[in-house]
Amino acid sequence: MTTCVRVMETVRLGDARAAIGNRNNVEPKLEELCRQHGTTTEGAFREALANFDLQTFLDAAELTDGDREGLFTWRGAAKGHSSLEA
Q1: First to last CA, the chain
Q2: For 48-78, what is each residue's pLDDT tens digit?
């Protein structure tokens, strides 16, 4: 399952997550905000993911080589250095 599919599944389960956490489901408000900007929560997420540069992010985070190794060898790790596919 890709990262995008996992996130969209989280959005789909918003009511259940909100109930378990005893919180309001903010997904409808986020969807309305996205609609006002000509997109959807899925579209906004996909655009952000497509434009995200993992290598630049990791460089800016100044992770040690050991931290990077841990990140990329963790069982749910991001694959490669330019993709968030898991």
Answers
A1: 7
A2: 989 999 889 989 999 998 898 888 887 766 5
Distances (CA, A) of 48 to 26, 34, 45, 52: 19, 13, 5, 6
- Extract the tokens encoding 40: 């959807």
User: What is the DSSP secondary-structure string of 45-60?
Assistant: HHHHHHH--HHHHHHH
For the chain, give every domain's residue range.
Answer: 1-51, 53-86
pLDDT of residue 21: 83
Question: Considering the chain, what is the average pLDDT of its residues?
Answer: 80
Give the number of residues written for the chain. 86
Tell whether the model's pLDDT for residue 8 goes beyond 60. Answer: yes
Rounded Cα–Cα distance for residues 47 and 3 (Å): 13
CA distance 85 to 79: 6
